[in-house]
UniProtKB/TrEMBL annotation:
HAMAP family cross-referenced by the UniProt entry: Ala_tRNA_synth_B
Job of this protein: Catalyzes the attachment of alanine to tRNA(Ala) in a two-step reaction: alanine is first activated by ATP to form Ala-AMP and then transferred to the acceptor end of tRNA(Ala). Also edits incorrectly charged Ser-tRNA(Ala) and Gly-tRNA(Ala) via its editing domain.
Protein name stated in the entry: Alanine--tRNA ligase
Keywords assigned: Aminoacyl-tRNA synthetase, ATP-binding, Coiled coil, Cytoplasm, Ligase, Metal-binding, Nucleotide-binding, Protein biosynthesis, RNA-binding, tRNA-binding, Zinc
Gene (UniProt): alaS
Length: 882
């Protein structure tokens, strides 16, 4: 057998990418794990997920041949991580892609060359097996032509790639034979074949031939452009080169596992199967947590944040099983960075920030974990008092889901106390939660149905709006009416038009599209421009509302709504100032998470861990206004991307940039990549005012702000409101308002204090009368009475006095206030086993049209029928005598 090359993970990744670059592919960067403008995905979960717009025809790439090694997260089976050889939450998917360019023959020929050529991977051909779709005779023949032996080709009905509407088609899979010594099954087992459930034949590459459109009608139509989409898991290929039994014994994971060994007092990897699972969980999860936080996601209770929190908590619990009681995950971030620095240097650059987020979450979970122990002890005490001797499934799941307790841990604690756990109830609650999670994530992996309406339209269209907002002689070079190419369109039709030149900005980078008018040679308005988007080849595509017919080839005057455009310019430049001010005040870790630049306001979303204080917000606002009033020139330059980076230009929000980029520079304060419209000098903005700031998601904050006349109007409204308040408070000057309000607050506090004292005195007086009226019942002595107090707080105070003086076995109090009624039931500790306060409150609360509950010794209820109080007190007496 041919000997394997000695390659590490970084070398393998680079070799794969270099191979396809040499075959005419453009190397695409690994995109953020947080999807950009794609609400259908919770995480980027494959290489092709970053290229949807290319594959469904919305955008035509500069080069139809692309290759990438894309970091990805999949969380559908978190529970399996560590228990299998190759299950991960984060992995890298290497791939090569063709959008309407090469197809099966080239994809297969190059795949075999990469795999077997001594210049590249150099695998032994005898170790490689290929599966293909039975009806795909072309793929079968191309593999034979490439040099694969017939007995290494297997037809498999499952080799058809289909994830819903959009591109689909047959695929072919490559398996590497690791030898029977790596197998977990006997050689003659029915599953011991390439494609079976075994450890011998390892799938390393899936090559998809997208040649059909899966339509909404559930039919399969030929694609206008056939595509290639492949995926090779880096972790799997590394395990082959490093002859590792699982993915975890490779250079991608072993440094992390070794570090965990150092944290544990006496646990070593490879000595105990149960411990090994915990080592693997931690090594896998810390990679996902580190990269996710580095890409702007933060721990929370929803969406991506919940995934991070869940992974972190599973890691902490895994650490406890290894005897690690101190916070340790934050210390592993630099190790992740060192392992991945060849391709992901940003992890080490942001290591301090990532570690600080993890450290904060670890500390918070330690407190939560202790709270879980308290709940578990309480549940065990309560279960001991019942005949069932069992912890119910919902409680066990709450301990797992809320506090991070694995059911195994709950089972161990319960067994020590002679109790069991309702396993079926736990599984039912787990299944319900998993179903909710599935519905919440990856709602639709499918791409849009591919359309070629504008895909093949390559005529050039020039945007001149940076300098001109009016074009006198624009020619219609492309016209579509009601979704079809046309030579003429009429009013009432949905019309899209491309002109040879245009002053109308197409929506991009958060800046909304321009609006305006289309005018004929006679000065008549023939259309209103309602929207402008980019066609697949990046021409500005205008959506028109016609008032007269419009013809292809005809020439028209195009006029942008100048007043609206200038407002948008002001807000766009202010957005750049705001972005920089946030970095300066809050720290360089802040990243843009989205923006919207409208005519009358701007919205800016950014990643930030924690609250933004009023003081910091004021610093940001003051800093922006300072730049405006400095009257700084705003300059733009078009250059290549490397030169732009040397200028220190910031790339916003994972935008995709071509060979030439536009850089907007605001003096020495801010330099950014940007294709939008801007003022010539910051003084044109006039004034900047933050209207609101708050959280909109896991670790994402949002600022809304206004500029120029909108900022003045906003502040004038506040001044008018303050003038009205001053008049109402009868103060001579606005500056006296704060002092007068402070005086009124002090007076209110004093009045509230006096009122509470009077209420307490009234409650004490009534208690003296009520507590002397105990009734003998079959279940013990009962005091049941209506009192006139302010509400539930006073009822609880009376119950405290009653409990201290031991006036009766059971107390039932009621009070009415307007259209509301309150009931309280208190039971002596010694009687709570036979008379439960919660049962009694449920029996009497319907009389006041209410409901309630509580502990065995204290319960309360509220309702909207005060007239039913006397009936409730009668029911209490009946309950005690039944």
């Amino acid at each position: 057998m041919k000997e394997l090359k000695k390659l590490n993970s970084a070398q393998i990744r680079r070799m794969y990418l270099d191979f396809f670059v040499q075959h005419g592919h453009t190397e695409m960067p690994s995109r953020s794990l947080v999807p950009v403008n794609d609400p259908t995905l919770l995480w980027i979960n494959s290489g092709v997920a970053t290229m949807k717009n290319y594959f469904d025809g919305k955008v035509v790439p500069d080069n139809p041949r692309m290759t990438s090694s894309q970091k990805s997260i999949r969380t559908n089976d978190i529970e399996n991580v560590g228990k299998t050889a190759r299950h991960h939450t984060m992995f890298e998917m290497m791939g090569n892609f063709s959008v309407g360019d090469y197809f099966k023959k080239e994809a297969i020929t190059w795949a075999w060359e990469l795999l077997t050529s001594d210049e590249w991977f150099g695998f032994d051909p005898e170790r490689l097996y290929i599966t293909y779709y039975p009806k795909d005779n072309d793929a079968h023949q191309f593999w034979l032509d490439a040099g694969v032996k017939e007995d290494h080709l297997l037809a498999d009905q499952d080799n058809f790639w289909d994830i819903g509407q959009g591109p689909s088609g047959p695929d072919t899979e490559v398996f590497y034979d690791r030898g029977q010594e790596m197998n977990n099954l006997p050689e003659d087992d029915p599953e011991s074949y390439p494609g079976g459930e075994n450890e011998r034949y390892l799938e390393i590459w899936n090559i998809v031939f997208s040649q059909f459109n899966h339509t909404p009608e559930d039919t399969y139509e030929p694609l206008p452009n056939k595509n290639i989409d492949t995926g090779m898991g880096l972790e799997r290929v590394v395990s082959i080169f490093e002859n590792a039994k699982t993915n975890f014994e490779t250079d991608l994971f072993m440094p992390l596992i070794k570090q965990v060994e150092g944290f544990s007092a006496d646990k070593q990897y490879g000595q105990n199967a149960a411990d090994d699972v915990q080592f693997k969980i931690i090594a896998d999860h810390i990679r996902s947590i580190t990269f996710a936080i580095g890409d702007g996601a933060l721990p929370s209770n929803v969406g991506r944040g919940y995934v991070i929190r869940r992974l972190l908590r599973r890691s902490v619990v895994a650490g406890k099983k290894l005897g690690i009681d101190e916070p340790f995950l934050a210390k592993m971030v630099p190790t992740v960075g060192e392992i991945m620095k060849d391709y992901y240097p940003d992890v080490l650059e942001n290591a301090d920030y990532i570690a600080s987020v993890i450290s904060s979450e670890e500390d918070r979970f330690s407190a939560t974990l202790n709270g879980g122990l308290s709940l578990l002890n309480s549940v065990i005490d309560e279960a001991k008092q019942t005949d069932g001797k069992q912890i119910d499934g919902k409680t066990a799941f709450k301990l797992y889901d809320t506090y991070g307790f694995p059911v195994e841990l709950t089972r161990e604690y319960a067994a020590d106390e002679g109790l069991t756990v309702d396993e079926q109830g736990f599984e039912a609650a787990m299944t319900e939660q998993q179903n909710r999670a599935r519905n919440a994530r990856d709602m639709d992996n499918g791409m849009g149905v591919q359309s070629d309406l504008w895909t093949n339209f390559t005529d050039e269209s020039k945007y001149v709006g940076y300098t001109d907002l009016v074009v006198d002689n624009a020619k219609v070079i492309g016209l579509a009416a009601d979704g079809k190419q046309a030579d003429q369109a009429e009013p009432g039709q949905h019309v899209d038009v491309i002109f040879d030149q245009t002053p109308f900005y197409a929506e991009m980078g958060g800046q909304v599209a321009d609006t305006g008018q289309v005018i004929d040679n006679y000065g008549k308005v023939v259309a209103t421009v309602k929207d402008v988007q980019h066609a697949p080849h990046q021409q500005n595509l205008h959506t028109l509302e016609l008032t007269a017919p419009i013809k292809k080839g005809a020439r028209y005057k195009l006029v942008v709504d100048r007043a609206r455009h200038l407002k948008i310019e002001k807000n766009h430049t202010a957005t750049h100032l705001l972005d920089q001010a946030l970095r300066n005040v809050l720290g360089g870790h802040t990243q843009q998470a989205g923006s919207l630049v409208e005519a009358h306001y701007l919205r800016f979303d950014f990643n930030h861990f924690g609250q933004v204080t009023k003081e910091d917000l004021k610093k940001v606002e003051d800093m922006v206004n300072e730049q405006i009033w400095k009257e700084i020139p705003v300059t733009t330059v078009e250059t290549d991307i490397d030169s732009a980076k040397k200028m220190g230009a910031i790339a916003l929000f994972s935008d995709k940039y071509g060979d030439k980029v536009r850089v907007v520079k605001i003096g020495d304060f801010n330099t950014e990549f940007c294709g939008g419209d801007h003022v010539k000098n910051t003084n044109e903005i006039g004034l900047f005012k933050i209207v609101s700031e708050g959280g909109v998601g896991a670790g994402v904050r949002r600022i809304e702000a206004v500029t120029s006349s909108d900022a003045f109007a906003f502040m004038q409204e506040r001044v008018d409101s303050l003038d009205h308040i001053a008049a109402d408070l009868k103060v001579a000057q606005v500056k006296e308002v704060a002092h007068r309000v402070s005086e009124l607050q002090d007076q209110l506090k004093e009045a509230t204090k006096q009122n509470e004292a009077l209420q307490a005195k009234l409650a004490a007086q009534q208690a003296g009368d009520v507590f002397n009226q105990a009734e003998e019942t079959a279940k013990g002595t009962l005091i049941a009475a209506e009192v006139k107090v302010a509400g539930m707080d006073q009822l609880r105070q009376m119950a405290d006095d009653w409990r201290q003086k031991d006036y009766s076995d059971v107390l039932v109090l009621a009070t009415a206030a307007g259209d509301k009624a309150n009931l309280l039931v208190a039971v002596k500790d010694g009687l709570a086993k036979t008379v439960k306060a919660g049962d009694l409150i449920k029996a009497i609360a319907p009389a006041i049209n209410g409901g309630g509950g509580g502990r065995p010794t204290l319960a309360q209820a509220g309702g909207k029928n005060p007239a039913g109080i006397s009936e409730a007190l009668k029911l209490a007496s009946q309950f005690m005598n039944d």
